[in-house]
Amino acid sequence: MPYFKCTQEIGKPDLVPEEFHGSKSQAGVVPSTSTAEGISSSRVADNTGESSSSETCKSNYAKLPDYLRSCLDYSSFVSNRYPVEIGKLVRLLLAEGLIQDKPGDIMEDVAANVVKELIDLGMLQEVHDGTEVKVPPSYLQLSILKLEKQDFVSKTANSPVRLAIRDGGRDIFPNVEGRLVRSLFIITAERRHDSFGSTGCLSRAYMGNVCGMRFLLVLDLDGKIAYLPDEVGDLIHLRYLGLANSDLDELPRTLGNLQKLQTLDIRMCGKLSKLPIEVLHIQQLRHLLMSKSINDCEIRVSEGIGKMVNLHTLSGIYGGDGIARELSALTQIKDLGVKRVSEDHASELFAAIKKMESLASLSLEAEECFFEETNCALFPELDAFSPPPLLQEFYLHGGLIEIPMWLASMENLTRLTLSFSFLWENPTSVLQLLPKLKHLNLWEAYRAKHIGKEFCNAGGFPALETLTIASQFLVEWTEIATGAFPSLRSLSFRCCLSLIFFLKACRTFPHFKSCIWTPCHQTLQGD
């Protein structure tokens, strides 16, 4: 199935098309042997995004098996202008049918392995602490073919296509009559920071045209829309529905008609605070992504969430009102995010999480309260919490009296975020012993004004590749122990407006590439 990207720009033709080659083959089972054999290394040499010679890239591209080439072409399509979140790419690959289910294997794991294989081959490049990927320019140009408008019209007539629209802000839906659009991606002018001449959001009429495309498998809308019509329930083939940043305050009950839906993404969805009960009746739903909306409320779901036994991802949910008890039935879940954790349901929630033996990623956010002269969140009963043994990613948002001792036992942890912990004790005394920790984000986690050798001993943080520190308190970092941070590649200071001195010995680390300060104190000095 070919891919086409169309742009609507003010003062330019309605459609400016580009074609992405796309694989002619359908989804295939991923072979058990590595496809890296016979393919030369094409890893990015530096952070400029440049790969090896174009001839090597062409040869590598030609040698790819069909299933990998189709996934690379698709990755070029969805990350042409902006990097794409790895989890989102995995979900899209599944919805598009580019990954075939194998008996006994979890579909998401198969798709994630395909993405990892492309990363290992240098055909996908990790960015933003390894949470997103993009296709390097040398491979991107192999997947894209510029088209004249007349060629676009002839090539897409009565042919299934994937279409991406960068809206120009005029609220005019492009003419796609006679084209069988199976996947539609729209990014609004507001999200593109191109508000000149923009109407502000996609109108009801515009959305009516979108919902008239009855054979859609994927619909991803990024930006404000005025209204999601009931007719969205007529898109019965839909497997992926993305409504991130849409500014909606309610969802239609007809979403329950979408019985083939695998992913519903309503993160940062305006004033939305409640999920229609009909969504809980979609038995094939595997990924339900929700989050706190702009008016600081969580997404509340009705009783029945515990019956969704196929859920793989559940984020942005409120654990109160008996929901924590229901979560204990979701023992198969691998990615969980809970908002406003409080004393009234913490014990039930922690007991439910303990049963989730396959859990790989967990995010917990405490309910806001008055703590240590700040209006922040404070976690209850964390001493009673026992993290699942396979947990690889952990996000803990809220005040801590002391660093939990069970953190030292999380030997499989690769990514950790502590935000607004406001600890008086040094958290790294425990964290530096974690053998597999690659990415650490300390956002207002530690109140120290001065950091020295005690922050990391020789050999501490053996696998850490990226470290991010945000602190209103930090004034200086004066010493770094010899042999500390042996694998560190990137160090970032975010919002450290009091920081005036930093020892730049990190530049001598064997794998170090970048040190970032944004924003910083005007008198910041280094030695």
Automatic annotation (TrEMBL):
Domain Disease resistance protein winged helix intervals: 82-130
A Pfam entry, by short name: WHD_DRP
Biased composition (Polar residues): 23-56
Domain Disease resistance R13L4/SHOC-2-like LRR: 213-495
GO biological process annotation, one example: defense response to other organism
Top-rank taxon, per record: Eukaryota
Region of interest called Disordered, as start-end residue ranges on this chain: 15-56
Protein name: Uncharacterized protein
Organism whose genome encodes this protein: Populus trichocarpa
